[in-house]
Amino acid sequence: MLTTFKATAKKLPEGLQVETDSRGFKILMDEPEDLGGTNASMNPVEAVLCALGACQTIVASAFASAHNFTFEEFHVELEGDMDPDGFLGLADVRNGFSEIRFVMHFKTNEPREKVEEYVKFIENTCPVGDCLANGVKLVLAGIKID
Known about the structure:
The chain is 28% helix and 22% strand. The chain is α+β, with helices and mostly antiparallel strands and 146 residues long. The protein folds into two domains: 1-41; 43-134, 2-Layer Sandwich (GMP Synthetase, Chain A, domain 3), CATH 3.30.300.20. Strand 1 and strand 2 form a beta hairpin.
């Protein structure tokens, strides 16, 4: 059974600021000043990195007991390579990330082999990771002129 998640994004008056909303939770996004923004918040591609790290962290936490896996602390460091000349129209290069790298940090007494096995489970289970690794069909469902 499919579950549909919904979100909105609305341009704010100042610079390139955008207010996003899902289920009443709001996130402000912007661009750095050198890309035309006001640097009031992270930009959308930084939010993609954050979404991936958050998803991996949620999976690690939510399924640990079912996998008889324990840890005291967990965090993920992420970085992605992107050539902004693509979306700025300055070069014929990909507009998005060409690669995302991440390092998972565990504070645990589990043996390395068990940690590596659990990391594979996290990678195979994370919905955001799946979207990024396998792509998602993007469908323009309409245009409305208000």
